[in-house]
# Entry
Amino acid sequence: MTNKAPINHYADFEPISEIYKKAVTNKQPCHTLRSTHMKNDLSEKYTTIETVLVPCSQNGVDIDYTVAYADFRPSQPRLESQLYLIAP
# Structure
């Protein structure tokens, strides 16, 4: 298959990268729920992507790394993105 890339891939990723940056800067976990739309000559599909990102620190002050969980599952109509920080 050719051209199997999400439609508006880069435009869709900007808000997600911003919430990840805020999670690390604010030292707060975040949750995202969104869908992607992939289409080419042979097929068209939607995928729901849900992630949880948790900033971690070895010394309790500086963020050294993050732990993340991602779930990809087939879905039907495109859903409204939900991007938010989780209260500490």
